[in-house]
Design goal:
This protein is mainly alpha-helical. It has a domain of about 160 residues.
């Protein structure tokens, strides 16, 4: 359980920690330093390998494929289309507004209070096992469940929608993809643009268009699936 809004959590969500410092109006040197260190070394690799909610989204989407549900409208946007530019800024808006500005003025971690990750990892388990907490359920819990249900429906039709369009932690690490020591590279002479990398990508990108894409979560699915071996993982030696 890593939800900052849950009083019984053992670990604190870094986004919740940032909200806490915004609420008490102090600069989070240590938290941002750790996040910057991780980003500088591996970019968004933690999103692809450590995030339990990302794994959960992929499970739900695999169910949607089995049910033969169509793709969502946002999934049909290509890089370079006018609408895709605005959609790509959504996580940064959540980071600035809900993680920064709102806690600064309300003194409450509102992103954590509404976050579907916290709902499924902390709120629901505690409500199920603790009768005292069940007696205190009110309107906020109903709102959290409604948001989670909305994301569940979205997950059925789209790949990792929370990661792609909402997650402020992903927004923090996204710019590091262009300068991290760990990086992906595409051999243009070998790449046939067969679209297999796009098919297997959990965040719905074509890695050959931009190997340093800020949306890439470094899951390595494209490296594994590429029939030409044109995509490789590397580390800067400097």
């Amino acid at each position: 359980m890593n939800c900052y809004a849950c009083p019984g959590a053992i670990f604190a969500c870094p986004i919740g920690t940032l909200q806490h410092f915004a609420a008490i109006r102090q600069f989070p040197f240590y938290t941002l330093g750790v996040l910057a260190l991780v980003g500088t070394m591996v970019g968004r690799l933690a999103c692809g390998w450590l995030c339990p909610f990302g794994w959960f989204q992929e499970l739900v989407h695999s169910l949607g494929r089995r049910l033969r549900l169509g793709r969502g409208r946002l999934d049909r946007l290509r890089v370079g289309q006018p609408a895709s530019k605005y959609v790509g800024w959504l996580p940064y808006m959540f980071l600035i507004v809900l993680v920064g500005v709102v806690p600064l003025f309300t003194r409450e971690p509102w992103f954590s209070k509404l976050c579907p990750v916290g709902t499924i990892e902390a709120a629901i388990p505690w409500i199920l096992v603790n009768a005292g907490l069940r007696a205190q359920v009110g309107w906020l819990f109903a709102v959290k469940i409604a948001i989670l249900l909305g994301f569940l429906f979205w997950m059925l039709r789209s790949k990792r929608p929370f990661c792609r369009f909402v997650c402020p932690l992903g927004a923090i690490w996204s710019p590091f993809n262009r300068l991290s020591a760990l990086h992906l590279a595409v051999d243009r002479t070998s790449c046939s643009q067969c679209e297999i990398c796009h098919t297997v990508c959990p965040v719905d990108i074509r890695i050959y268009e931009d190997p340093h894409s800020t949306r890439c979560i470094r899951c390595m699915e494209c490296v594994r699936a590429c029939p030409e071996g044109a995509i490789r993982l590397g580390m800067d030696e400097t």
